[in-house]
Amino acid sequence: MGYFLTFGHSPWGQQILTHVSWNLLWASLFAGVAFFVAHASYMVLSAHRKRHPAETDAIEAARPDLPARIPRHSGVARAFHWVMAASMFTLLLTAFLPIAGVRFAWVTWHWMAGLVLTTSILFHVIHASFFLDFWSIWVGPKDLPELRAEILRELGHDVPGPKPGKYPLGNRLYHLAIVAAGLSVIASGLTMMVRVRTPLFPRNPYMLADSTWGFVYVAHGMAGVGLVGLVIAHVYFAVRPDKWWITKAMILGWITRRQYIEHHDPDRWVVGIHPKTQVPNPKSQVAQ
Amino acid sequence: MAVIRDVMPAFELFQPASTADALSLLDRYGSDAWVFAGGLDSFDWLKDRIKRPRYVVDLGGVAELKGIRERDGGLEIGAMATLTEVVQHPAVRERYAILMEAAEAAASPQIRNQGTIGGNVSQDTRCWYYRSGWSCYRAGGNICYADTPEAINREHAILGADRCVAVNPSDTAPALIALGASMVVRGSGGERVMNAEDYFIGPGTDIMRMTALQPGELLAAIRIPGDWAGSRFYFEKVRDRQVWDFALVSVASAMVTSGETIENMRLVVNGVAARPLRLVNVEQFVKGKPRNEATAAAAGEMAIEGAQPLRFNAYKVPLMRNLVKRAIRGVEEWATS
């Protein structure tokens, strides 16, 4: 148990949780790097299974109605993403560099970055709920056929099954994981701020019992080390040459018509006038 | 079962004869090893069973860490030189009287005979919550018991607190910083020399350590340059018991004057934060100003900017302010005015 969690003693001699063992940081770091190596190796070995450009040419030729540039992320959504990324990197570096032996006064930077992250997430929740295609990023039972098709495609089969809507299934699963870890780290982090001196409110170390504080610290630590692996995976996919078009869209805001046709199902992510129903998609131009 | 505090717990004792051997032992045993200098701090930890090292490396037999010698117009003091040796050394008394005063203010004659200057600057904090073995931040836990509404925190920090509110207990540390000393640290990777003020670290940087010493490293010597030799010094330590106690607040300064104008100054306070605080803003403020009551009063106010007293230590704010005033204007000249 000591490999995963650390314990101390309260003034009354009771054994209490204090925080996660920092062995888990190295485990998460290792898991992230191992995933990167395994996935990169697999992609190198399966490179020969790429679709022939002529096939995409034919599909693109069939949709001359589409604009050359398809808007994918609005300016507001991109600004949110990069603010969140900056705060996340600041949080991870200020949290884990001191554990790795790089000494600096990290606490103030850490909670300030945490407040930036919290504010940006709150903004994102409101923005996504009322101004974006909210359900386009979530996963559910309806995605099982797509999951099956994606797995078969990865295994080298030519499957006619559903292609992704606006977001590939991997994106949506990643979003789900980051939501779980992010909300845990934010909720526990805001609670822990009550214990440190900030100009925002008076300290109250006795707001919770010692043992309850232990669970808060463990939740924060678990989510934090989990985010290390998740962020490594995210950065890995962001810089992969075959995914660079997605990253570029997060910078410029648009993808090309060819990328849209090649990677998305026009029935699930309708751009402009739906070719079958002739119904315009009002959110297609601004959706993140 | 009650802890038998008079009996030393079992550990494997090593008594190397050279720094190289000592470093080799520290390298071999890593965080399981405990560096033992004069033993005044160590004995408390060991007998109370709060720290349970498996290996103790006693530096008492390492001759190269002892002694006080001239070097580059200044002095080099071996980390294992005792406080009594520092107090009695002619060069210290003649050129660095502030260090003599500070070392003489430490503890009792018996302790100064045994305690070393390296141990005095590297000793752990005296926060009794921490030293009682509670799982506070400094002990690897997640709370500061001294910074709670009911805590007894009369001796704790008013500045620089970052979760932990413990203070540095060293008497010689502020004097060494005022003298512009540097610390010679040796490890298996070689030697590094750092300014004395950088040797001490606060909880924001590392909440579990008081100094920049890494595991496996030793403080080998302290070098004092000749720059401030013979300048106008001031050291004062305020404590509850004059015969033997840690400082509530102490101040150390070295000043160069031209007539009654302050040309240059180094000013350090201790007992108010987890590390001795060099008051650079005050030093800048007084430079070029007359050494008088007005300058001292303004400097005193400047010194306490940002102070955040706890429930029982608000007295440290005016105490620090007045000590800074006294360091700048002196006490002798004003005693009869």
How does this structure look, described?
The complex is a heterodimer of chains A (288) and B (337). Chain A is mainly alpha-helical. Helix content of chain A is 56%, strand content 6%. In chain A, the strands form two sheets. In chain A, strands 1-2 form a two-stranded antiparallel ribbon. In chain A, helix 1 packs parallel to helix 7. The longest helix of chain A has 30 residues, at 210-239. The radius of gyration of chain A is 22 Å and the shape is elongated. The two termini of chain A are 42 Å apart. With 337 residues, chain B is of the alpha+beta class. In chain B, helix 5 (97-104) packs antiparallel against helix 9, helix 11 runs antiparallel to helix 12 (293-303) and helix 12 runs antiparallel to helix 13 (316-329). Classes of the chains: A mainly alpha (288), B alpha+beta (337).
Short structural summary:
The complex is a heterodimer of chains A (288) and B (337). Chain A is mainly α and 288 residues long.
Topology at a glance:
The complex is a heterodimer of chains A (288) and B (337).
Chain A: E1 5-9, E2 15-20, H1 23-45, H2 53-61, E3 69-71, H3 75-96, H4 107-131, H5 144-154, H6 169-192, H7 210-239, H8 244-252, E4 254-256, H9 257-263
Antiparallel strand pairs in A: 1-2, 3-4
Helix pairs in contact in A: 1-7, 2-9, 3-4, 6-7
Chain B: E1 12-14, H1 19-29, E2 33-36, H2 40-47, E3 55-58, E4 68-71, E5 74-78, H3 83-88, H4 90-95, H5 97-104, H6 109-114, H7 117-122, H8 128-131, H9 172-178, E6 182-187, E7 190-195, H10 196-199, E8 218-224, E9 232-238, E10 249-258, E11 261-270, E12 277-278, H11 280-286, H12 293-303, H13 316-329
Parallel strand pairs in B: 1-3, 2-3
Antiparallel strand pairs in B: 4-5, 5-8, 6-7, 6-8, 9-10, 10-11, 11-12
Helix pairs in contact in B: 5-9, 11-12, 12-13
